Amino acid sequence: MQQPEPPSALLGQEDRYRLLVDAVVDYAIYMIDTAGIVRSWNSGARKIKQYEEAEIVGRSFSLFYTQEDRLAGLPHRALQIAATSGRFEGEGWRVRKDGTRLWALVVIDPIHAADGSLIGYAKVTRDLTERKRAEEALRTSEHQLSLLVQGVTDYALYMLDPTGIITTWNAGAQRIKGYEPAEVIGRHFSLFFEKADAEAGLPERSLVHCRTRRAL
């Protein structure tokens, strides 16, 4: 008895592509026409941008941009770049249906017909909001630490690279050692040793000792 063909075997190539794209939930993948009107919408787009397909198909993709970017003409420029150079890629703030913002990695590729004419664009968006927040939190933490270190005036606090070159210089170092930052950053810390100690290799031995202790 002949076994029935599996349902997947009955699908046409176009149906297979549609199911494949719709199965992707971590990326918003959709098509827009040459005027920027949304013509398709996958499950990832619904998840990331919060619009149902019936709510967004037929509307301009500029809806996802911030008001500032729309006023600056960014949506139109993105399509122009994709059409002329073969791809647009960038990161920036986009707007969900509920008005909240997400930091998005956006890629726009032109779609051409068999005769080479431009018929639309494939747009892929990835939500990088959590990464952006982590980067901003790190920058804030680093800035606060910098302010803390610079606020210390009773101790000379500065950083050396692995070869002993001075890379940072706080207010305490300036007060205690008498050097302005511009005078000392980029120079070797052996500058602070007595000539005999420097010639005897004490600065280098100090660095070796620090590296050895860190490795233990």
Shape: elongated
Spans where pLDDT lies below 50 across 5 or more residues? none
**Beta fraction:** 15-25%
Q: How do the strands line up in the largest sheet? A: 1-4-3-2
The major sheet is characterized as:
4 strands, antiparallel
Number of DSSP strand runs: 4
Q: Which assembly state applies to the chains in this document?
A: single chain
Mean pLDDT: 87
CATH architecture of the largest domain: 2-Layer Sandwich
Structural class: alpha+beta
Question: What letter string, H or E per element, gives the SSE order?
Answer: HEHHHHEEEHHHHH
Q: CATH top level of the largest domain?
A: Alpha Beta
CATH superfamily of the largest domain: PAS domain
Fold-level CATH name of the largest domain:
Beta-Lactamase
Rg is 29 Å
State the helical fraction: 40-55%
Distance from N terminus to C terminus (CA atoms, Å) equals 72 Å
Q: What does this entry show, briefly?
A:
With 216 residues, this protein is of the alpha+beta class. It has two domains: 7-129, 2-Layer Sandwich (Beta-Lactamase); 152-215, Beta-Lactamase (2-Layer Sandwich), CATH 3.30.450.
